[in-house]
Amino acid sequence: MFQNVKSIRISDQIATQIRHLLLEGKLKPGERLPTESELAEKFGASRASVREALSALESEGLVERRKNGGTILRRFSLNRVLSDVEFPRKLDRELFFDLVEAREMLEIQIVELASKRADRMELNRIERALEVMQEDISMNRNGIESDILFHQCLAAATKNQILTGLSRSIGHMMQKTRARTLEVPGRLEECLQEHRAIYEALASHDAELARRLIKAHLAQVRLIMDELDLEKGEP
């Protein structure tokens, strides 16, 4: 399972092998790794290189090194990796439009999968997000958090951690755009109606209807963005 490594950065190769073995399922979360001496022998490397590799993996949250308890493997979290990605604070015009396009493509795929995979628990969470937005309207709040919550619940309903992580990341980049569009008089009420229609399509497991509704929803968002000339500003 382990392979000898011969390179200047031995520790990097050791860490990479362990990451791959975790991803491939050959090493399981909760398992205890061999001792540093045993790993050094298996990799054909020094204990110092093994120790450096384990330190790197620990900083990534992939292993837990316990005093007198060895090294325990932890779950490889793709959401965690995506959440650690740093994004530019300002987007130029071209990158901004790329972001809008990526969001539209992503959201369409999300509702298609969610309409097929969402169970009662996920549907309840989406429904709760609608209730929170209704409360925002009643309390005259801006609705940003409830809008974010709705779209995050949609992504979670796909049961796909990559889509969920990407949705969260893109949502973070577009937070200022979301705030400005929801400031348009009457937009929050319209948004709630559009969200509710999407929810009903998901609850009926109607993927085609959900797809049409999310496309219409995003087209309306883009129209408002064009009217506000947001492409010249910062998302």
From TrEMBL:
GO MF annotation list: DNA binding; DNA-binding transcription factor activity
Domain of life assignment: Bacteria
Keyword Magnesium attributed: no
One Pfam family named in its UniProt record: FCD
Keywords, comma-separated and alphabetical: DNA-binding, Transcription, Transcription regulation
SUPFAM superfamilies registered for this protein in UniProt: GntR ligand-binding domain-like, Winged helix' DNA-binding domain
HTH gntR-type domain ranges (all copies): 8-76
Database matches in InterPro entries: GntR_C, TF_FadR/GntR_C, Tscrpt_reg_HTH_GntR, WH-like_DNA-bd_sf, WH_DNA-bd_sf
Coiled coil: none
PANTHER family: TRANSCRIPTIONAL REGULATOR, GNTR FAMILY (PTHR43537), UXU OPERON TRANSCRIPTIONAL REGULATOR (PTHR43537:SF5)
Stated name of the protein: Putative L-lactate dehydrogenase operon regulatory protein
Phylogenetic classification of the source organism: Bacteria, Bacillati, Bacillota, Clostridia, Eubacteriales
